[in-house]
Specification:
With 157 residues, this protein is mostly beta strands. Helices cover 14% and strands 44% of the residues.
C-alpha cells in the first residue's frame, strides 16, 4: 500500500467515539503507520478550511454510512512516530441518522482501500483487539467511563 501521502507532513485527524450501550463502534483497517491491521474509531483527515467537527461528520459518513452529531471533545492526541506525525481530536458522538455499512476511504483507490471491517464491539472484548490508540482501549477497560474534561496525550517514539 502506498503510504507516502501520510509521510513527512503534519496531519490533522478526527475520530468518533460512538457508544451503544456498552459497545464501541470501530473500523478495522490497514493503517499506514502499522504493519498489520488495527481497529480504530471511525474518522480521518481534516481538509483545509474545515472544522474538526465538520470533518468528523464527513469522515464518519464516508466510513460507516452513519450521520453523527459531535457532542463533546474528549481527547487531543499528538502522534509522532517518524515519518508520521498527526494531531488527533476524538469526540464523543451520537448517531442522528444513516444506515450502518462499511464505506470507503476516498484518499485511496478501490484497489488500495484500507478499510476492512466495521462493527460495534463490546467493551469486554476490547482488550483482545489491536485497538489504536491505546488510551481509548484503556479508558473502556478501566471503568468504561469517558473523561470528564478534555485530555491531552502524546505518543512520541
Amino acid at each position: 500500500m502506498k503510504d507516502s501521502i501520510y509521510k513527512n507532513k503534519l496531519r490533522v485527524r478526527t475520530g468518533a467515539i460512538i457508544i451503544s450501550n456498552e459497545w464501541l463502534l470501530l473500523v478495522k483497517q490497514n493503517a499506514p503507520t502499522r504493519k498489520k491491521p488495527i481497529w480504530m474509531p471511525p474518522g480521518g483527515g481534516v481538509e483545509f478550511g474545515e472544522t474538526t467537527e465538520k470533518a468528523l461528520v464527513r469522515e464518519v459518513k464516508e466510513e460507516t454510512g452513519l450521520v453523527v452529531t459531535p457532542e463533546r471533545l474528549l481527547w487531543v492526541h499528538e502522534f509522532l512516530e517518524k515519518p508520521f506525525h498527526a494531531i488527533e481530536f476524538y469526540y464523543e458522538c451520537s448517531i442522528s441518522g444513516g444506515t450502518l455499512k462499511l464505506g470507503a476511504d476516498p484518499e485511496h483507490n478501490s484497489d488500495q482501500q484500507i478499510l476492512m471491517a466495521l462493527k460495534f464491539i463490546p467493551f469486554s472484548e476490547l482488550n483482545s483487539l489491536d485497538l489504536y490508540p491505546d488510551f481509548i482501549k484503556q479508558a473502556f477497560i478501566d471503568d468504561g467511563k469517558l473523561p470528564e474534561h478534555v485530555t491531552h496525550l502524546n505518543y512520541i517514539s
